[in-house]
Amino acid sequence: MTAVREYLDRAAAAGLLREAGGFGFVADRCDDPFTGRRQVLVEYCDPRLPASADALAALRDALRAGAEEADAVLLRVVGDVRLPAPWRPRLTYVRHDRAPRPPGAGTPPPGGLKVRPATPADDPRVRDWLAQAFRNAYPGQEVGPGHPGVTDVVDAPDRMSLIAEVDGEAVGHATVLVRQQDSVTGEEFAELVDTLVDDPGVRRAAVAALVDAAVRATEGRPLCGHVVHPYEPGAARGADAVLRALVAGDWSVDHCFWESPW
Q1: How confident is the model at residue 109 (pLDDT cuts 50, 70, 90)?
Q2: Which residues belong to any copy of the N-acetyltransferase domain (predicted)?
């Protein structure tokens, strides 16, 4: 792809394009904004590299030899590819595969459920929901409505939030960044940053309605979401269950950031 070639040319000019096991990769320091964990991000690697255990080992050796000390390596792997230990999934991006259901299709929603565009008056609730989502993804972290990660989303010029209501009461949201671009492929997409519904009685129906509304509102632009895989075993199992449910439905794995100890 032309965009990937241009990306690699820019990486080479910046001194970030290197080689391990005969395969090219692009890496730079990128610490976790929520945990402060020191990381080296391999934003691109030759698609053949993850399939070779020797190349994966050579990659880790090359990074340790050529960079300052870190806590972990993050490797972007395209598609639903599984890596051997000590690699573990950290952040999986999924892509919505189907058109929104026509009105009236599927299981009828509970009475009184509707989705509407957010207004500025909804922003405090949206901030609270986003903060809760980040706390769920990063257990033990103190993330409030004023956290930079929350503010960056709420203040983004392409941010669109949708509100699910039951009998006029807001019960949840979907927040989308509608004009995003993949730094490697150049593809433009919409990123579903979060869906969160407080009321467990309508949660499944409300999330489905919010996602359908997000697909419609982004006008056919690819809609991508993500699943964070926490470190704690119980939370990690919950994230895996969420991912399995998404892939069994209307989503497929686009790429995953795999983590390995330094």
Answers
A1: low
A2: 113-262
Nearest to 205 by CA among 115, 126, 123: 115
pTM: 0.89
Rounded percentage of the chain residues whose pLDDT exceeds 70: 94
Give a yes or no: residue 91 inside a domain: no
* Same domain for 105 and 225: yes
Beta strands in the chain (DSSP E): 17-20, 23-29, 39-45, 72-78, 88-96, 113-117, 159-166, 169-181, 188-197, 223-228, 251-261
Q: To which residue do tokens 């020191």 refer?
A: 38
**Does residue 103 lie within any of the structural domains?**
yes
Band (99; pLDDT cuts 50, 70, 90): low
Residue matched to tokens 């004009």: 179
The verdict on residue 203 lying in a domain is: yes
Of 78, 109, 139, the domain-final residue: 78
